[in-house]
Write a structure and sequence with these properties.
The chain is α+β, with helices and mostly antiparallel strands and about 220 residues long. The protein has helices at about 5-10, 20, 25-30, 125-135, 145, 150-155, 160-165, and strands spanning about 15, 35-40, 50-60, 90-95, 100-105, 115-125, 175-180, 190, 205-210. β5 (about 100-105) and β6 (about 115-125) form a beta hairpin. The protein binds a DNA duplex (13 and 13 nucleotides) through β4, β5 and α6.
Length: about 220
DNA sequence: ATATCGATTATCT
DNA sequence: GATAATCGATATG
């Protein structure tokens, strides 16, 4: 037994294996629904470790060099090099001069592919997320604005390219990882991807049916 | 409730 | 110089 309980133990979440990500982005995207994104890092004022956790409820698959909408489409560059590396690593990019977006690499070295995180359902550390978002929680109505949308969830988790690009999302020690708590059951809905102009018709967006934290307008299904 | 628009900068042509 | 895997504010029904 270690002196401190492991983060996996304290959150009740077991990290995913590398193999999970060594598959086609469509498979990975589908199977990421219901898993848990965990942030752990030392706090600045030394009060204690910061732990954030949220359930993944909406993602999009990007298919690499054959997908006109993917950052990997034009080949490997300094910006997207993580996508061409091994699976299970964080690809963080900056967009519209304002926001960071989080992806996880898939498939295998040399074969780019990834999944974009679009919405989360907060589980642990809601107040910290609200602070990071520059808001104060007054009621349940405020919760979706914390983590519904790729830019919002990145801000809530304090994700930046400088800090997190290239992090190993299979290792709790990296401070940003994905795990399974075995609790989730939900129905999956598949729709076209959002906010893109190329290949906008392909159904590569995966979401949990009826979940209140999914981004975009409410939908009756 | 839905539509439109401006902000702001890394990256690529 | 143009564009962008977005968000929040403002305008309008």
């Amino acid at each position: 037994m270690s002196a401190q309980p492991s983060l996996a133990a304290s959150t009740g979440v077991q990290p995913l294996q590398r193999d999970f990500f060594a598959r086609h982005p469509r498979r990975v995207a589908r199977d990421l629904l219901g898993k848990v994104l965990v942030r752990s890092r030392n706090s600045k004022n030394g009060v204690g470790p910061v732990v954030l956790a949220a359930r993944i409820v909406e993602v999009e698959a990007y298919l690499g060099e054959n997908d006109p909408a993917a950052h990997a489409f034009a080949g490997k560059t300094a910006r997207n090099s993580v996508l061409f590396g091994p699976p299970g690593y964080a690809y963080v990019y900056f967009v519209y001069g304002n926001h960071y977006c989080l992806n996880v690499s898939c498939q295998r070295e040399g074969k780019a592919g990834c999944v974009l995180f679009r919405a989360l359902e907060p589980l642990i550390g809601l107040e910290t997320m609200a602070r990071a978002r520059g808001t104060v929680l007054k009621g349940p109505r405020d919760l979706p604005k914390l983590t519904s949308g790729p830019g919002r969830l990145a801000e809530a988790f304090g994700i930046t390219r400088a800090r997190d690009n290239g992090s190993d999302m299979v290792s709790p020690q990296s401070g940003l990882w994905i795990g399974d708590d075995g609790l989730y059951r939900g129905r999956v809905l598949i729709t076209p991807r959002i906010g893109i102009t190329k290949a906008a018709d392909q159904p590569l967006r995966y979401l949990v049916a009826g979940n209140a934290f999914v981004s975009g307008r409410k939908r009756v299904t």
